[in-house]
Amino acid sequence: MKRKIAAAAALATVLSVAACSSSSTSGSSSQGTLSTDGKGKTITVWIMQDAQKGWPGVVNAAVKQFQDETGAKVNIEWQNWPNYSTKLDTALLSGNAPDALELGNTQTAKYIAAGSFVDLTSVKDKFDNSSSWLDSLAASGENGDGTKTYAIPYYAGSRVLIYRKDLFAAAGVTTPPTTLDELKADLDKVKAKNASNPNFSALYLPGMDWYTALSFGAGDYGTSGIIAKSSGGKWSGTLTDPNFIKGVQTWADLQKNYSVGGQTVNENNQDALMAKGNIAAIVGNGWEAGTVGGPAATGGNPALANVLGEVPVPGTAAGTPTPAFLGGSDLAVPSHAANPGLGAEFLRIFTNTAQQTALAKFAIPNNKTLVPAYEAAAPANKATGDAALGKTWFIPNSPYWSQASDEVALQNALSAIATGKDATASLTTAQTTILADLNAG
Hints:
This protein is an alpha/beta fold.
């Protein structure tokens, strides 16, 4: 634990020094600018292969518009998520960072704290739809108190209830649930209809899926300060708040009553398990329906492609879904980029209304204004779009949040609860670990 915290602090210090000592005029404390003076120049942009595979036309359109308007060329370097943090750390430390880049919104905080990105606050209003950016996605690109913007929202993803309409209909359920009580009543019918199958899960809920479990906690506690909240530079925990525990217990009861197995595993294999036919519903990202009903060669079951439905995870009242964790990607300009103004201008064009409208055919756009375009692109998008527009939550916006420590602490606590351990005691243990990390600085 101490070695991990020391390493994180050291990285933040080194990155800050690298940013501030750069020969670039756009150090971490400087205000970002937008430049169209690109004649004879080439900028380098790191974009994830998700776009190369899913929406290359959006990238190409942005590149063309940028080149036409600035005279600069664009070198897109496609990246992969595995080991990306290590590659990014190395680039920022060595001074060989690109002029603009994409990163996951859970990665952003440590780089903002380290001074690794240009402060774009002064040009934020030049970005289309910035006043309607999705709440949790926008927050991930801000400093701790939300007064400055260092990263621009790119696109989002949200979790929904993915269910087999054929199995629900066979049990007499022909309309999707809109409240938790309706969900439980529907699951009771589906479970009873398949009682002869001991391996059947009416709703499969892996015990280590902290994204889903904490969403239920947020349903009773609220979405502000989930996991922990900061005041006066000090973090305090919310995992042991009675209302939060009440919500988590709702998740645990669903797990106990409707999920067969899975108490000690995460959600990574739930799509493949559902494809095998013994699961009627899961909570997952909207695109997971495509995986479940996808080719057999990739673990899917094509026979299920046309029987899968998606709705926001029901909440306590109709029209108020259980709050969703809002994941996604951000875009930023490294503080010692060779061409920071051009990098920022590329991001402005890449996220303008035209490009985001085109992106909305494939993913949730970065703003509430264009979510209806995403929902109109395909019937299945309605659920994830509504979830993104509803109340959402995000991890503590701190550079000391650790995937290797804090997420594991949550997984272990929730797995313990799923196996029958006391919720308060289990969450207290996780909270102790998380607060030690968050207050390390």
